[in-house]
Design brief:
Layout (H helix, E strand, L loop, with lengths): L1 E6 L2 H17 L3 E6 L9 H5 L6 E3 L4 H7 L7 E5 L3 H11 L3 E4 L10 E5 L11 E3 L3 H9 L2 H6 L10 E4 L5 H21 L4 E6 L5 H9 L4 E3 L2 H4 L5 E4 L4 H8 L3 E6 L10 H8 L3 H17 L4 H5 L6 E5 L3 H12 L2 H15 L4 H10 L2
């Protein structure tokens, strides 16, 4: 069977497509992968996608070019794993192939489309949306190879906490956050001098930028999240897919969304145009952030599926001093950290989402 996967950003590609593509290969299916236009792109999606063993790789290209070319795809099944679902609908119609869509966020039911999500709480009350578990959990299991484990060395001494900084996959935000994170590290070491701090990046991090972070004293490392997170005591990150990675690994974390970085967050479509306007743009972004908070109450993904707050988070006028103080307070309470790890793992659920997705797609 020929299966075509549509995806876009780095989190969806490495966290969703990777385990699904692996499962499809095991079942002997031919895989075509389309990288859709994405304002959240890291710039290294095609390089990463080339490692997934797919039979055909398309994109990323501009929106109009992708829209025109997608109708020429001949396939038996379409899997939408990220990106604008209009592309999936267009391909499904032109190829007369069933469309299955996996998403974290709430989507309205679309006639003829099989809608899947990770957790029941994300289905937005729609009975036709099927929770199958988190694909990211499967991706983390793929990180745990003997080779990766043997290369990851992080000596640990009693009372010397190991902290991971996770600045994200988008260059603009990383560049803006570098100095901010240097200040966070300085403030942490003032309170806990023996703390060990590393900054986690994917293997696609350009060498020039890697060197820049090394010179800043932030000890950058390239590793799979499934290995690095299980060898740490705490993490500092931003809202995104890695919030679920932290949950699955049982790694207590602080999720921060400082208002000063709002202007670096990409916004798609006409909303992106409004967000790019001078003066009014930042107000628009702030309004959008407040709408998300009003709707969900939290910025981190685990908190949105839990019956109460489990992941520590801060947003608004957050300074490096604020973040460092919060991290140090957490690290000085080992019993609370133990309970947090337990709550994370209790929420995590079972592996095997990729297998369940392929079973559902094949039954169409």
């Amino acid at each position: 069977m020929r299966v075509t996967i549509l995806t876009n950003g780095p989190g969806e590609l490495w966290g969703w497509v990777r385990p699904v593509a692996s499962e499809l290969r095991k079942r002997g299916h031919s895989i075509s992968l389309w990288l859709l236009p994405c304002p959240f792109s890291s710039g290294h999606e095609r390089e990463a996608a080339s490692l997934l063993g797919v039979d055909k790789l398309e994109g990323p290209s501009g929106t109009s070019r992708t829209w025109n070319e997608i109708v020429h795809e001949k396939t038996d099944r379409v899997l939408q794993l990220g990106g604008d679902i209009q592309f999936g609908l267009r391909m499904s119609k032109s190829s007369n192939a069933p469309l299955t869509c996996y998403t974290y966020g709430p989507r309205k039911q679309i006639k003829g489309v099989k809608m899947l999500t990770a957790y029941r709480q994300q289905a937005n009350g729609l009975d036709d949306v099927i929770p199958i578990g988190d694909l990211v959990k499967d991706a983390l299991d793929m990180d745990m190879t003997p080779s990766a484990l043997s290369q990851w060395k992080w000596p640990h001494k009693e009372n010397s906490p190991r902290i991971l900084f996770m600045p994200g996959s988008r260059p603009a935000i990383r560049h803006a956050a570098l100095e901010w994170l240097v200040d966070v590290k300085t403030n942490i070491l003032t309170k806990i001098p023996e703390a060990r701090i590393r900054t986690l990046f994917s293997q696609f991090m350009p060498e020039s930028e890697f060197t820049q972070w090394k010179k800043a004293g932030l000890e950058p490392v390239r590793s799979g999240a499934g290995v690095a997170m299980r060898e740490a005591d705490y993490a500092l990150t931003q809202p995104g897919t890695n919030n679920f990675e932290l949950m699955h690994c049982g790694l207590p974390a602080l999720v921060v969304a400082p208002e000063k970085f709002l202007k670096y967050i990409p916004v798609a479509g006409i909303l992106g145009f409004l967000a790019s306007l001078p003066v009014i743009g930042i107000r628009f972004r702030r309004y959008g952030a407040m709408r998300i908070l009003k709707r969900w109450g939290y910025i981190s993904l685990p908190n949105r599926i839990a019956p109460h707050k489990v992941m520590n988070e801060m947003y608004g006028d957050v300074t490096p001093e604020d973040a460092a103080e919060e991290i140090c307070e957490e690290l000085m309470n080992p019993e609370a950290l133990r309970k947090t790890r337990e709550e994370y793992l209790n929420l995590s659920g079972e592996s095997g989402a990729a297998s369940r997705l392929c079973d559902i797609a094949a039954s169409e």
